[in-house]
Amino acid sequence: MKLIIGLLFTVTSFLSWSIEIAYSVHMSKPQNHYFEVEMSISQINQKSLIVKLPVWAPGSYLVREFSKNINLVHAFNEQGKELEITKNAKNAWQINTTGIKSLKVRYEVYSFELSVRTSFLDLTHGYISGSGIFMYVDNFKDTKGILKIFPFEKFKKINTALPIAPLELQGDAYQAFEFENYDQLVDCPIEIGNQVVFEFNAAGVKHTVAMYGEANYNIPLLKVDMAKIIESETAVFGFNPNKNYLFIIHNVPGGDGGLEHVNSTTLSVNRWTYAGADYLGFLNLVAHEYFHLWNVKRIRPIELGPFNYDQEVYTSLLWVMEGFTSYYDELMMLRTGYYSQAEYLTKLQSLINYAEGSVGSRVQPVAHASFDAWIKSYRPNENSANTTMSYYSRGAVIAAAIDAMIINKYNGTKCLDHFMQHLYKTYYEKLNRGFTVAEFKNELAIFTGQDMNDFFKKYIDGTEIIPFADYFSKVGVTVKQNALTRASFGASVQNSGGKVIIKSIRSNSAAEDAGLSVDDEVIGCNGYRVDQAMLEGIMNGLEVNEEVELLLSRDEILFSVKVKITNYTRPQFILTPTNSTEEAMKFNYWLR
Ligand SMILES: [Zn+2]
Q: What is the DSSP letter of 57?
């Protein structure tokens, strides 16, 4: 598609390919949360231009409608005369450029959502997630250019993975950066403020950490621990493709995870995460986002780069991108020495029980979960647990099964690492593109020496339980599969302003059979008023076939229902090392 457009332009107006683009960003009054953006476009050779803002941020599969934050879009010619702009889509502005060689587009962006995928500005700092801030010229995303950041007078530091522009382009009031194309510009988030910055070397790469926010971190310890994870991950692939890498870390109440980029990442973590068990969680997040620099930013489905920023980009391979990355983030904790083999097996067992035990796992195949991430995973509702499953967890357990398959085939001399290396070399280095589902499946079939059609049909495009015993017994782990049955009410409740409100109801549960609905208020049980703790205490103590009468309020109307407790059965897996000398070598190779 991109090529076809290119050819048409080449025929009609060859010179139009040489436009030049420069951006400048001001933040004169951070308390109003507006970034002021100016986009200079020159060497124009056509009658009209369309400038656009993405509707989503790569790596986060939700249409976020960033243009809702855009105001005061104006365009001016060289003489400063205002040009006519017509808005022709929610995220597109068309400018009449008849007789015009260069122009400036000015707009402001309201930025008051601090997350790894959105932008933020206040008197303490600014954070730019480029896809919500920078417009691009339609059909000219491959144009390189310059970005000048004019920081607020009290902000002394700018951290981004964008290359710094040559000295002659720098100025007193701003810092200038270069970008090769629009994808690179928006793949490099920017932190502006008075952040704590430190550096360390690992795997031959210079790493910079920019810390926003007070937190209980220990810089010497972080340098050692982050470097260890980076070295372990680099060993998976045998090399590290970056020269520099930037961690932007937001230490905030809560924290909402991370977002991957080619040579940087933004992590949002609880400011007290750097001690105790939470610290392992932080290192796991580092391992996850860092692994993405290979898996999804370079090894990727064909749809994920170059990106279509205009709409949802559908791929059914997020179980590889996110699932394999989740498998490796835990495996790296093992290989780096933060988990013992026994701890790792316990974690894998919990993951399998979660992935296979979720109600939604029998409803939604992992390939569909990936494809529909835009409307399901990223837009959950009260019924999601009944209908959806996580491509992170199920993808991770599938990765474990495939790893075991490969280790067994190569008798403990090769593992999933080598398949990842193969994908990197073939698709990123040689072909410089992503792969299709068919190509991925074919590569896997060749590498494992097995026809993968049945595997895909049952476990990727289907919802069958993966026969873990078959896969893991070959690498020294015995898997016992039981059915775990317990008496269950089947509804979860929460306290809302002193009221006990039904939050979710499991499909085919006692609660559903009795006619309960999400949002019902539970007032009483068997004639007594209950609060959340009392209700949960009663329900958890009931045996199968026992009955209780609940007094409910729905839309201000009181009524009562009889609930008869039923059994709920889910699969349960228990993993233990086989301890046979035969498989010990493969076991120790897998969990090295
Ligand atoms: Zn991820």
A: B
